[in-house]
Structure formats: structure tokens, C-alpha cells
Amino acid sequence: MQFVEDQVADVTILTPQFTWLDASNVPQFKEAIQPHLAQRLRVIIDLTPVEFMDSSGLGAMLSVLKRVDAGNGELKLCGMSRKVRALFELVRMHRIFEIYNDRQEAVKSFEGVMEASE
Amino acid sequence: MKAIILAAGRGTRMRPFTTTVAKPMIPLFHTPVMELLVELLARHNVRQIMVNTSYLAPGIEGYFRDGAHFGVEMAYSFEGRKSADQFIDEPLGSAGALRKIQTHSGFFDETFMVMCGDAVIDLDLSALLDFHRRQGATVTVALKEVPADQVSNYGIAVLDEHQRITSFQEKPAAHEAKSLLANTGIYIFEPSVIDLIPPVGAYDIGSQLFPRLVESGAGMYGVALPFQWLDIGKLPDYYQVMRQALCGEVHGVQLPGHSIRPGIHCGLNVSIDLEACEIHPPVYIGGSSTIEPGCRIIGPALIGPGCIIESGALVEESMIFDYTRIGALASIRNMIVSGDYCVDSTGLVIDLQEAKLDGVITDARTNLDLEPNTSRELLELLADWGA
Questions:
Q1: Contact B378 A95 (CB under 8 A)
Q2: What pLDDT score does A112 carry?
Q3: Contact across the interface for B360 and A90, Cβ inside 8 Å
Q4: CA B77: distance to chain centroid?
Q5: Nearest Cβ partner for B348 among A23, A82, A91
Q6: Which of A116, B207, B249, B328 satisfies CB 3.0 to 4.6 Å to B312 for a cystine?
Q7: Looking at the domain assignment, is residue A41 inside a domain?
Q8: Separation CA B315–CA A75 (nearest Å)
Q9: Which of B198, B231, B264 is at the close of a domain?
Q10: Pair B173, B87 in one domain
Q11: Which domain range does residue A43 map to?
Q12: Distance of residue B331 Cα from the nearest chain A Cα, in angstroms
């Protein structure tokens, strides 16, 4: 289980290299994302490749948010498929996370980033 | 007067609902769409109705039986076979269905009506018959003008100045359409038409028989009488029709149950405290449901019989079918929830078993304490968050 890591100014963008997140791969997900979160204050997870999550996958996203919050960081999500978005809405997680259509929007939403990256 | 209702389709574009319910049996509140058709036919003095069945035939045949409850005579022409306790459907196409019945008994010995079993209509069938007789038609097609940007969803008929059909276009692009008159799947036939159907194999009325009729120069006419035509072909159609039904916009369909407040109707034995929850009409709540204090239901919404809407849950512009528990943390917006599925207003399907959201939406009859709750961890995390 891997993530592609991109950097725009001080924003780290993580793109999962898997298409689903469920009970079968959540333990690997949690382990694999750890090093990508260390020392990062501004993180975007671009969920474009992810077509499906089950309740364990949704729970794993909450644990990531908890971890980033605990380090006083900010986590934003983007690139959700309609299905993943619908699952988030079903359990009201769309009100817990900041969600953007694409990574450009998500990057712009961080204060001061445009100036730094332009 | 005689009629045939075409009810043998698989309804693939209406899955997952049609995996267990035949498309003609899809309900508006408690009434299958096909029952509305049978009632309409009966009101226009059609007394003998044949139904061709195939896929999920027992559901249709067991409901209507011999038609006596509906003031008509009904029988079924089953297209398939039974093998090792399994029904194997072998549909013959809409025209093939007519041929099979005719070969069997010669049932069609006078002018008769043909209808698809999956549309909600309030057409004046007597006026259609008058038109048919006045024109001396062999076939009359009920047409409906559709917006130009929707012609590509329909079979389009082109008429001459005498309302004779000169050609058909099957799902034309908007700029190629020669008319805006859609074939609604409601016809009047003379029995002689059946002679044009080949003796074996599946054969379709719209795409095969009609072009042949046009070619043969048979008297084929079309007329666009004013009527409401709600085609339930795809999942988003069903959501829209249910919404209209809740708003009182479907002719002949009213909110069932009794009114407990303007625009809020209930069946019997509903547990609800209107002062303790937020409910905006129009809402229908089926019998024996439990509406817990502290939930929100924003109409147009339907809560089926035997449902439980837990305290804190939100149901907004949605239809929740029989025996569904909507958990405290759930937010159901613009959806149909039925059995193991949520389907949104655009037709997106969420399989609740696959998503393991059984603690969020589940069958109201399960005892959650006795079942493995695969979403417990998520619910605990969400509760921590004060969601």
C-alpha cells in the first residue's frame, strides 16, 4: 500500500495508490500513511483513485484526521468519487472534514499558499 | 373490450429494486404501478386483460390472480419454463407475446389495447378509442410531446397532415429529430396486425413490428391527447415520480393514511410525538413505524411501514421503504432506501452490506444486540467527534 507524495509550497499532497479502502486493507493503510504525516502541518489527501470505502475505511479516515489534529496540523480531502462522497454524507463525515473538488481548490484553501507557490 | 399489459421485462435499468420486485409491481405508496393501469383500464370498460409475464412472474400473478378484486378478468401468458424448482425466463418480446396468446386461444378477436406495465398514466382511453375508430386505424399510437432535449430518450413518430404515422426514429439525436412526439407504449390494435408478426422467435413492437407496419402501408395513426405520462424506466425516474406523488402531483394518487397535521399523513399504530421532532410536510409515515423524539424529517418524504427513525437521524426529501431502521447518526438526503440499498436521486447505488453500514441503516426487525455490528468502531469514533 503506497502513497504518492507531492509538495506545493508547504502543503503535502498524498495520493493513495489503491482503489478501495475497507476492512481488508485498513491496517496496512494506517501503517503506510504514518511516515507521510510526520512533521507535516498542511496535508491534502487526494482520493481520486479511491472508488470505494466501507465503514472501516471511513473510520480510518477519521483516525488520520484525529492524528493530524493532535499535531495541530490541518487535513483536507479532495477528488472524492460520487460514491465515496455519498458514503461520507450518509454518516455526516462531510461536516467533519474539509472537502474540495480537486487538489487546486484544496491547495488554494490553505491561507497564504498561493503567494508562496506563485 | 380487451387489453394486454406487457409485464415480462427484466427492468435492468431499475436494479437493484427489480432484483426482487418485478418492475410493474414497483409501488407508489402501497399501490403497484400496474394496479393503477388495471384500474384505468377498468374505468374505461376494459373487462378482459391478458398479462404476459416472465421475470419474477409469481409476484405479479399472485397479486392480481384472476382480476376479480379489481373488477376485471385477468390471466397470464407465462414466457419461460421451470427447471429444478427454478423459473427460467424466456421472454418473447412485446409482439411475440401477442402472437403466443393468439396462437394459444385466438383471444384477440376484437379491437384491443396494449400497454407497458411500467408507466403511470391518466390517459382518456375512451377518447383514444374514439380516435382509432374515427380514423379507421389498424394501429393507433398514443403520443406525447417531449422537450427537444429529451427526444434522444424515446422512439419518435413522424405524422402526416392526417395524423398518419409516416416513419419512426429510434432515439434520435436532438438535431436529427423530425418531431417531438414520443411513443408512450400505449396502443390500440386491430387483431389483423398480429398476422404480421413472424411465427417464431422474439419480436418487438416498437423497433420491429411498427417499421414493418409503416412499410406495408397499414393504417397506422398517432395522436397526442393531453395526459400525464410518468415513465418509470430508470432509477432517477422513480425518485422523481415518488416525489411528485408525495406532493400530490400524480393524478389519481393521494397521500394514504390519515392526516395528523396538514400535509403529514400516518398509517395506523405509528409512535410519534409531533412536538418532540421536526417534521416538514409533505410526509407520509406507514403503519407501526416509530419516529423517535429528536429526529428530523424534511418533506417530501416517505417513511414506509414498520420503520424506526432514531433520535438524531435526518431524513430529507427521501423515501425509506418498509422495515428500515435509520440510525441516530445517519443523514439521508435525496435518496431512496430500500432493503440493502441506498439509491440517490441521480441513480447512484450504495450497497449497504458491502459498505458495512449496518449500524447506520439496517432492517428494523433485527436485534442489534444479537448481531455482529460491523460499523460499531466507526459509530464510536463518530460519537467521540460529537457528530
A1: no
A2: 73
A3: yes
A4: 20
A5: A82
A6: B328
A7: yes
A8: 29
A9: B231
A10: yes
A11: 3-108
A12: 5
In degrees rounded to 5, what are phi and psi of residue B103?
-65, -35
CB atoms A95 and B387 under 8 Å: yes
Q: How many domains does chain A have?
A: 1
Q: What is the mean pLDDT of chain A?
A: 91
- Residue type at position B354: E
Neighboring chain A residues of B332 at a CB cutoff of 8 Å? 90
Chain A contact for B387, CB < 8 A?
A: yes
Q: How many domains does chain B have?
A: 2
For the segment B162-219, what is each residue's pLDDT rounded down to a tens digit?
999 999 998 999 999 999 999 999 999 999 999 999 999 999 999 899 999 999 988 9
Residues of chain B with pLDDT under 50: none
- A111 near B CB under 8 A: no
Residue A22 and residue B355: Cα distance in Å, rounded? 8
Structure confidence at residue A114 (pLDDT): 55
- Min Cα distance B340 → chain A (Å) is 14
- Interchain proximity B360–A22, CB inside 8 Å: no
Of B215, B231, B247, the domain-final residue: B231
Q: Which domain holds residue B283?
A: 255-384
Identify the pLDDT of residue B281: 97
Is A114 among the domain residues?
no
Tell me the average pLDDT across A68-96. Answer: 94
| B125 shares a domain with B7 | yes
B61 with B195, same domain: the answer is: yes
Please tell me whether residues B26 and B165 are part of one structural domain. Answer: yes
B66 lies in the same domain as B101: yes
Helix B376-384 and helix A55-70, axial crossing angle in degrees, nearest 10: 30
Would you say residue A93 lies in a domain? Answer: yes
| CA B86 – CA B78 distance, rounded (Å) | 14
Which residues on adjacent β-strands are paired with residue B271? B290
What pLDDT, on the 0 to 100 scale, is given for residue A118? 45
Q: What is the DSSP string of B244-281?
A: HHHTT-STT----SEEEETTEEE-TT-EE-TTTSEEES
Q: Is residue B330 part of a domain?
A: yes
pLDDT band at A43 (very low <50, low <70, confident <90, very high): very high
Residue numbers of A between 43 and 102 with CB closer than 8 Å to B: 52-56, 58-59, 62-63, 82-83, 86-87, 89-93, 95-96
CA distance B92 to B99: 9
B366 shares its domain with B275: yes
B-chain residues within 8 Å CB-CB of A62? 378, 381-382, 385
> The CATH number of the domain where A26 resides is what?
3.30.750.24
User: Best residue in A83, A90, A94 to probe B by mutation, most B CBs within 10 Å?
Assistant: A90
Rg (CA), chain A: 13
Q: Could you tell me if B139 lies within 8 Å of chain A, comparing CB atoms?
A: no
- The residue type found at B366 is T
Nearest residue on chain A to B380, alpha-carbon basis: A59
* Chain A partners within 8 Å of B355 (Cβ): 52-55, 87
Name the strand (E) or helix (H) holding B72: none
B360 to A91: CB separation less than 8 angstroms, yes or no: yes
B206 and B261 housed in the same domain: no
Quick check: A116 pLDDT over 80? no
- Looking at the fold, whether B75 and B27 belong to one and the same domain comes out as yes
